[in-house]
Design a protein that fits this description.
Strand order of the largest sheet: 1-6-5-2-3-4
Number of domains: 3
Strand content: 5-15%
Number of strands: 6
Distance between the termini: 60 Å
CATH class of the largest domain: Alpha Beta
CATH topology of the largest domain: Rossmann fold
Largest sheet: 6 strands, mixed
Oligomer: single chain
CATH superfamily of the largest domain: HUPs
């Protein structure tokens, strides 16, 4: 069984590995059975200790912004995981909490008889706090494993304030980690489970009944105490759906990615972020597929790191452009969240940005909108309204328009703090890929994170980069997009 690189594994408590009945993998962020360092580590520990492997995937009802949309996407993944893991030598235990607090005690009950507990090292949302609390409560060792990106989060001990600096660091540091890839099937070499082990385990967990087929199909959503005003999306969650989306992209729009991805009408974006966010899809698998398609090997890397967006990988223009998004821009968010627990607070903005925004806080605003008006896309700007409508209706927003969306919210809010609160609320409530390090990068970029001071200095924005709907209309091909999501309204710049 291949060991996971030690830089990706850390313990959350000081308890030793002990004699127990099994190894428990608590799946919370990398919700997939393939290409998973965390599942691979748990399986390796089980093989080393000659113990069965138990996989717990639980879905609580009390997480922030819990809704039919997010629940259903997660349940799709759980359903796919149960079908896949049912044919492997491990016990998969899916649990869907029916009401607040019903799941309390389940992890402790499973940990009680475990040699150790393994989980996912994910630096955002409520997960770090939940795991830290669990590490203090359970009486078993808890190890977390980083499978978030090509670069281990612990490969650096500082926050990078500019994407250029992080990219240059990546180019210097990443080659040493590129050979460390998770196994396609981390459970392939596990021995058969002891006879009757699964049924005995399930009988001990009768207080937390295993999720039914109906629950995993989403048929019981209406009975759960979650937000039913945010409906499910029309695309499926789960690792198989995520992998299919990846192959469809690589076989299709990838060939136009560098040139067309910013144009809403051209459909050249990858659309992979929902599956990446919920861990249904591995960035390592995506990288492996691109490298194979490019006939790439590590000796094609540029000799010296220079921080440039193109040319370092030694791949095609489309591959270079996509990998800059998948690796640089996605992983700089994980760098921020893993080293700054205040990543989602206004105070984490660069000093120059806070100073400039403060200097313009009293500037008059031509338009001010309430959160309700924003959520309902009830503004004077039909481009912005279309982007917000896309978000609410589909759970996604075109990446370029997401930048404009945030800039206009800043312009229409009483203060920058109010703008930040509105962006977080709207994005995290409606976007399937919200609540993610990458989405926080995008939100805070609106206010200056990873950017520089721009001139000329403008009202409201100060030295923050400015964007307008009128300029966006001139730059982008979006007639079809506006026909689909727009409403007739006058555009005021």
């Amino acid at each position: 069984m291949n060991p996971v690189p030690s830089i990706r594994v850390r313990a959350l408590n000081e308890l030793p590995v002990r004699e127990g009945d099994y190894v428990l993998y608590w799946m919370v962020a990398c919700r997939r059975p393939r290409w998973s360092f965390a599942l691979q580590h748990a399986a390796a520990r089980a093989a080393e200790l000659d113990k069965p492997l138990v996989v717990l995937e639980a879905l609580r009802v009390g997480y922030p912004w819990a809704s039919d949309r997010l629940h259903r996407f997660i349940l799709d993944g759980m359903r796919a995981n149960r079908a896949w893991l049912g044919d492997r030598n491990a016990v998969y235990y899916p649990y869907v909490e029916p009401e607040h607090g019903a799941g309390r005690g389940l992890l402790a009950a499973l940990a009680k008889d475990a040699c150790l507990v393994v989980s996912d090292d994910y630096p955002a949302f409520f997960i770090p706090r939940m795991q830290s609390a669990a590490a203090d409560r359970i009486d078993a060792r808890l190890e977390v494993v980083d499978g978030n990106g090509l670069l281990p989060m612990r490969a650096t001990d500082k926050v990078f304030s500019r994407a250029f600096d992080f990219r240059r660091f990546l180019q210097k540091t990443l080659p040493a980690h590129l050979d460390d890839q998770p196994l396609e099937d981390p459970l392939a070499d596990l021995p058969a489970l002891p006879k009757g082990f699964g049924s005995k385990l399930r009988s001990r967990l009768s207080g937390w009944p295993e999720a039914s087929d109906d629950a995993l199909a989403g048929d019981t959503l209406a009975s759960l105490p979650i937000d039913h005003s945010v409906p499910p999306v029309d695309f499926e969650g789960g690792f198989q759906a995520g992998e299919q989306q990846m192959f469809d992209f690589l076989d299709g729009a990838f060939s136009r990615y560098a040139e067309d991805r910013n144009h809403p009408d051209d459909g050249a974006a990858s659309g992979l972020s929902p599956w990446l966010h919920f861990g249904h899809l591995s960035p390592h698998q995506i990288f492996r597929e691109i490298a194979a398609n490019e006939g790439w090997s590590v000796d094609r890397l540029a000799a010296k790191p220079n921080g440039a967006r193109e040319g370092w990988w030694g791949m095609s223009e489309n591959a270079e452009a996509f990998l800059d998004e998948l690796v640089t821009w996605r992983e700089v968010g994980f760098n921020m969240c893993s080293h700054n627990p205040g990543y989602d607070r206004y105070e984490s903005l660069p000093e120059w940005a806070k100073k400039s925004l403060a200097e313009h806080e009293a500037d008059p605003r031509a338009h001010l909108y309430t959160l309700e008006e924003l959520e309902q896309a009830d503004t004077h700007d039909h481009v912005w309204n279309a982007a917000q409508t896309e978000l609410v209706q589909t759970g996604r927003m075109h990446n370029y328009l997401r930048m404009l969306w945030g800039k206009r919210i800043l312009e229409w809010s009483p203060t920058a703090r109010d703008a930040l609160a509105a962006m977080i609320e709207l994005n995290n409530k409606h976007a399937v890929d919200g609540r993610d390090p990458n989405s926080y990068s995008g939100i805070f970029w609106v206010l200056g994170r990873y950017d520089r001071a721009w001139g000329p200095e403008r009202p409201i924005f100060g030295k923050i980069r400015y964007m307008s709907s009128a300029n966006t209309l001139r730059k982008l091909r979006m007639n079809d997009y506006l026909a689909r999501f727009g409403r007739q309204a006058e555009l005021f710049d």
